[in-house]
Design goal:
CATH class of the largest domain: Alpha Beta
Helix content: 40-55%
Bound molecules: pyridoxal-5'-phosphate
Radius of gyration: 21 Å
Keywords: Pyridoxal phosphate
Region (Disordered): 341-361
Structural class: alpha/beta
CATH architecture of the largest domain: 3-Layer(aba) Sandwich
Oligomer: single chain
Domain Aromatic amino acid beta-eliminating lyase/threonine aldolase: 14-294
Number of domains: 2
Number of helices: 16
Protein name: L-threonine aldolase
Shape: globular
Organism: Actinoalloteichus caeruleus DSM 43889
């Protein structure tokens, strides 16, 4: 018994993010064998293949690879906004709080957060109210609504196609453009068993990550009209994101796209983790996808206790965040539950690790 605990403590299980995955042999082999060209000069065939496949999957006219999701979002916002334009996004959206203010610094946008009616999802009426534009010449101009699916800080909450349709319609009605931050759109698609293109209906632009649950080491894609992508290519170059023999990176993205269906396992593991933590006495939301959020009284203490147990978690909106991904197995999730369960029985453990008993007091 003590032996089991001793050994397992030595093997850390990393649940900080689904970005910690490492490219496996298949992916590395595809990268090594990639057909390449100069993608800044006159094109890279593997980049083209990835972009065309993404555009098709997303039901958009064209797509452009970017080194990161943040750059994809920044490019979209730069294309949509003029300096001083207001843009709307759900409370705790990634573009509001997690992109170093680039929406303002680089895209010139004035951010306006919309409250949630359900986790991650704003009310259509708030879009209408916040964009009551068409005022006199001195009125603030609201130009863009930025949706996030899944909503990261809401615990990977999905926006269903019908909710999406209502929000997009309200934005359109108010004369707004729509950008979809779909860093984890693949997760939403798998969780709701709808094609990704069903979740982009009516949007002008969408950004999807290849480097999160899908496991590519680098890369995102921003999609929209052919006209948008032509401008996005210029903006990407301005931001330093034009790469030369990018096919080496795009090849990883193509392998990643073959793995979308496997996200279902991450979702099952997240559910297993949440259910198990609840049984131990934690206050945990039921995850819709691969992000588990738990409430704790003392976040720093809980995180350091977890680290001591070899369970790496992170903080998100004042809560403990654990993300399942392709490099963590079902057996490891059970191991996480065993480690935390054992710790909670110790005199000091129950209090430091977030339990519903503790947070009720
Ligand atoms: C991770 C993430 C991004 C940014 O992706 P990077 O590749 O890390 O720059 C954008 N939006 C959301 C919702 C994310 O979770």
């Amino acid at each position: 018994m003590w032996c089991d605990l001793f050994v397992t403590k030595l093997v850390p299980i990393d649940l900080r993010s689904d970005t910690v995955t490492k490219p496996d042999r298949t992916m590395r082999a595809a990268m090594a064998d990639a057909d390449v060209g100069d993608d800044v000069l006159d094109g890279d065939p593997t980049m083209r293949e990835l972009e065309e496949r993404c555009a098709q999957l997303l039901g958009m006219e064209a797509a452009l690879w970017t080194p990161s999701g943040c750059m994809g979002n920044t490019i979209a916002l730069m294309a949509h906004l003029q300096r001083g334009d207001s843009f709307l996004a759900p409370h705790l959206a990634h573009v509001l709080g997690n992109e170093l203010g680039t929406a303002a610094w680089l895209a010139g946008g004035m951010p306006q957060a919309l409250p949630w009616v359900t986790p991650g999802v704003p009310a259509a009426s708030d879009i209408t109210a916040a964009s009551a534009s068409a005022g006199p010449y001195y009125a603030l101009r609201t130009r863009l609504f930025c949706l996030e699916n899944t909503h990261n800080a809401a615990g990977g909450a999905v926006v269903a196609p019908d909710e999406h349709a209502v929000l997009v319609a309200a934005a359109r009605e108010a004369g707004l453009r729509v950008h979809l931050d779909g860093a984890r759109l693949w997760n939403a698609s798998v969780a709701m068993e709808v094609p990704p293109a069903a979740l982009t209906v009516g949007v002008d632009t969408a950004q999807v990550c290849l480097s999160k649950g899908l496991g590519a080491p680098v890369g995102s894609v921003v999609a929209g009209s052919a006209e948008f992508v032509a401008e996005a290519r210029r903006l990407r170059k301005m931001l330093g994101g034009g790469v030369r023999q990018g096919g080496v990176l795009a090849a990883a993205g193509l392998v990643a796209l073959d793995r979308v269906d496997q996200l279902a396992e991450d979702h099952q593991n997240a559910r297993l983790l949440a259910d198990g933590l609840r049984e131990i006495g934690w206050q945990v939301d039921t995850p819709q996808t691969n992000i588990v959020l738990a409430t704790t009284l003392d976040l720093p203490t809980t995180l350091s206790r977890l680290t001591a147990l070899g369970v790496h978690a992170s903080a998100m909106a004042g809560r403990v965040r654990m993300v399942t991904h392709r490099d963590v197995t079902r057996a490891q999730i059970k191991q996480v539950l065993r480690r935390i369960g054992k710790d909670a029985t110790r005199p000091s453990g129950g209090r430091s690790l977030g339990s519903s008993r503790a947070s009720a007091s």
